[in-house]
Amino acid sequence: MTRKAFKLVPAVPLGKLELDTKNPRIRAGHDEPDCIARLLRKPKQMLALAKDIAASGLSTAPILVEPKGRKYVVWDGNRRITALKLLNNPALAGKPAIASQFAAVAASAAVPIPKSVDVLSSTKKDALLKEVFARHAGGQDGAGQLTWDTLLRTIFLLGHQAQSDYRLAGLLLMWAEDQGIDVDDQFPISTIHRFLNKKRLERLGFKDLGKSIELAIPEDAAVRVVERIVHDFAPGGSRDVNDVFEEDAQNRYIDEVLRDAGLLAPEPTSTGGAGKGAGGDGGRQQKPDERPGDTARGGESDDGGSEEDEGESKPPKRGRATVKADYDRKSVVRPRFKPDFPENYWKAREVLRELRQIETGKSPIAAASLFRVFFELSTRAYTKRHQLPEVRETHKNALTCLRHMRAHGRLSAGEHDAALRRFREKSQADMLLQYATLNDYMHSFQHMPDRQSLHVLWTEIEPYLEACWDDARRPR
């Protein structure tokens, strides 16, 4: 019955085939260049597919499409159509290093590279859904159709307005992708589904609209909430299903996420210096309703007088917790920063991986050291790729790269100016951290890095670091 819902359309030119922005491997695509860039997040797989096509021709599995005016939207076969587009026009890759590899594959092809393909077209979405799910049964290292895990199946269903058992978790992760937070294909969506119901979604700051979700809190706070969840449960992350298996653990985790995002007041902690119940301030412990840092009874008040003189303690001020600043995160690297490293820059990839694993508050010297190494490798990579003049001082090379990026539209005026303030001075150890102060941390007996300064520095120069690895980058 499904087969009858399709008709064969022969020799459709590649230019009439549009990539599916809702495809689960693309996710949150805006247009064709963006869709191609998202598929090229896994360049090895795309190159494996392109080499297979160049050696043996296109596979016999029909491309499934839905008509859209005079064009067709690809429901199944987005990777194959993208490979064909790149083999016919390598410049579509955006990045010169990847484009040259596709050009080399095309130049050595054993069979002609098709410029048009036969497709099976249907206007019935139920038939398309059924047919697509009947496929995807074997990866062959990227040359065959890749198996869909639960996340990809969920995104496919939700993207085409179909029912899914993991609806809320899927909508939250799709929102994350829309904000530029990359979610791994193997992300364990079932773990998020375990603790995410409508009530908890609202606690996290989102309203359930059925087919989508909307914000009930400021966007920057929502981004921090979702970044934290994605970072915690990503493959190789710090959390797994055992951390949210029971209901009490689920509620504790939600509270922790909200505190980390500044949406929930911190838990009361004891004070007293020398120990709990003895020494320090005479064994006094913080009251349950007292904020950390409030003045104790008999201590100094804000205006320099003694609260004891007034006869009673001033009640602590109450109110909604302020939203945390962007620097208030565990590691230097923000989760949304995910550059696509060329294969020969494996060291930069490993440095970034280790930097992500370091909690800056616990190991600030290690964090500062790897931050400096990653900055220098990033600057050198851009300098070499564009054959820019080099000098011995890294901050001067960074200034050269910065001017080049701005001239080629890779940075906005604001992004350029924020980085310029950090690179222009060689060292300002007594002011908010400059890049060169990282060097002071490595060689000085006095200068000690601190978490806030390192994180603020990363945030302000992150656009520069993105542009170091992505020539297709455009200002957000």
Structure description:
Mean pLDDT is 81; it is low at 270-324 and 426-434. Helix 14 packs parallel to helix 18. The protein is flat and about 70 Å long. It has helices spanning 32-39, 43-56, 78-88, 96-107, 125-133, 150-159, 167-178, 189-195, 198-203, 219-233, 247-260, 307-310, 346-357, 364-385, 394-407, 413-423, 435-443, 451-469; strands at 7-13, 17-18, 63-68, 71-76, 116-121, 206-208, 213-215. The two termini are 47 Å apart. The longest helix is centred in the C-terminal third of the chain and has 22 residues, at 364-385. It has a 5-stranded mixed beta sheet. The chain is built from 18 helices and 7 strands. It has 3 domains: 3-146, no CATH class; 156-260, no CATH class; 343-469, no CATH class. The protein has 476 residues and is an alpha/beta fold.
Low-confidence stretches: 270-324, 426-434
Report the count of strand segments. 7
Strand content: 5-15%
Total helical segments: 18
Backbone CA Rg: 27 Å
Summarize the amount of helix as a percent range: 40-55%
Q: What structural class do helix, strand and pairing data support? A: alpha/beta
The best one-word shape is flat
* Main beta sheet strand tally, sense and closure: 5 strands, mixed
Question: Strands across the major sheet, in which order?
Answer: 1-5-3-4-2
The sequence of SSEs as H and E is EEHHEEHHEHHHHHEEHHHHHHHHH
Quote the distance from N terminus to C terminus: 47 Å
Averaging pLDDT over every residue, what do you get? 81
